[in-house]
Each structure stands twice: as C-alpha cells, then as structure tokens.
Design goal:
It contains four helices and no strands. By secondary structure, the chain is mainly alpha-helical. The longest helix is centred in the C-terminal third of the chain and has 24 residues. It is elongated, with a radius of gyration of 18 Å. The two termini are about 25 Å apart.
Length: about 80
C-alpha cells in the first residue's frame, strides 16, 4: 500500500518469487535506484500519506467499518 501511495506500483510483488525478481532488477539498475533515491522524499510528501486530514478520515472510516463488521458478527446480523 505504501508503494502504491507513492506511485511505485511496478515495485509491488504478488509472490515471493516476484519480490525477489523485483529486488534483483532494482539492485542491478544503479541509475534507476539513484533516481528513486532522488525522488522518494518528494513522492512521499505529495502522496496522500502526508495529508494528515485525509489520512485520518480514511483511517477512521476503516476502523468504523471493521467495528461494525465485528459487532454484526457477534450479533449474527449483517453490517
């Protein structure tokens, strides 16, 4: 989710083997790695991760959703 939030979806792996491949490819591409080092802070600051108000609202919504699902599971009702 963090890589997605900073626009680096191509670094997200869906399996251990793919993770190894992504890491190996990145480790052997010094120019790309340098580029990531130079842009990562800016990417992070521009992402929703650093928007405190929006992040808090999404987090709160997620917690409320989980709470409602948990309560419904305890009562036998649907959320």
């Amino acid at each position: 989710s963090l890589l997605h939030a900073v626009g680096l979806d191509e670094l997200v792996a869906s399996s251990p083997a793919q993770y190894i491949q992504v890491a190996a490819d990145l480790a052997t591409d010094a120019a790309r790695l340098d580029g990531l080092h130079l842009t990562l802070r800016e990417r992070m600051l521009k992402s929703g991760l650093c928007d405190k108000v929006s992040f808090a609202a999404r987090f709160e919504s997620g917690i409320r959703h989980m709470w409602r699902e948990w309560c419904a599971s305890r009562s036998g009702a649907t959320p």
